[in-house]
Amino acid sequence: MLMALGLDLPKCIFAHGWWVTGEGKMSKSVGNIINPRELVARYGLDPFRFYLFREMVFGMDATYTEDNFVLRYNADLANDYGNLCQRTLPLLIKNRGGIFHKKPATLPQSQEIVKLAEQVKTGYIDAMENFLFHDALKHIWSLVQRLNKYVDECAPWKLAKEQNFEVLDEVFYTIGEGIRFCTHLVEPFMPHLAPEFFKQIGCAENRVKIPDLTWGQLADGTACTEPTPMFPRLETERIQNLKKGGKAAEPAEKKEKTAAPAAKAEISEDGLVSFDEFLKTELCIARIETAEKVENADKLLKLTVNIGSETRTLVAGIAAFYKPEDIIGRQVVMVKNLKPAKIRGILSHGMILAAATEDGGLALVSPDKPAQTGIRVK
Fold this sequence. Notes:
- By secondary structure, the protein is α+β, with helices and mostly antiparallel strands.
- It has helices at residues 36-43, 45-55, 66-96, 108-129, 133-154, 156-162, 165-186, 194-200, 236-245, 252-264, 275-278, 324-327, and strands at residues 19-21, 24-25, 62-63, 283-293, 301-306, 311-316, 331-335, 341-343, 346-348, 351-352, 354-356, 362-364.
């Protein structure tokens, strides 16, 4: 047909691999088929697209599980990309009237960001041309993560308090230009949400093609808007609510099975639990013995913890905030009686507690004095 139309024949036909579940290859007879329309209705089209491109090495098989989707969504979209706007634009509005003042990169950290941006663009284009979509997204997220670290390093809230507006303007411009740069690159993967990010930084009309993308194109005097949460974290309660609201709900038989434990939880209508119910959660002091990064998981650390009577392995999503070597020997508070779960092929038995900080970081919950390892927290 192509020859009859006088069109060139394709030089390469590229086919992706199979999507499998944690139970193996999808099969109607097994009943483990995943309906993508349900997932889009539940979590949104762009987050789902992002996950598929991020997880699959194009040409090879890839595994989909909802647990992995939630981990990737919370780590990359909620904690990294979405949080970058949420933690900085309100500061810009409060301290500089929401205006980006274009400044040259004089700080060593700013110069590092500029250099990294150009490297990311080069690596991104090369990856896209070779169908390495997961690598293209990795390149983007190396800049997203560096920008979040840049916010921590430069602490614009401190600069504002000190009224060091010259440096503050440079920091805000670097962050805004970094968001603009990343959003141009991520738009092919999230074509519906990327324009919203452009609007938030005031660049809805100032768009360029990726080959023409260079650092410094964010115009002086650009005004941002109040950011709206684009990627709300998927907590357990929120996931359950989303599932209930989906069109293709679980079979009635399955719903009845899952409804029974909820009735025993003794949770009142206002969300409060009884004291007896609270005591069922066993918290203890754990000492981190070893820590290492989980392969192909930018946000996860594999920890070995000592809880007095035994040593356990668990996976924690703290790699963006703590280096493995910095937490070895540290005491933390751990949920001891949490049901084990497999995360990235690692059986995780327990969960360490952490809290979000005012600057958008994360702080492990630890005793303020050395405590007996394994002792129950009361």
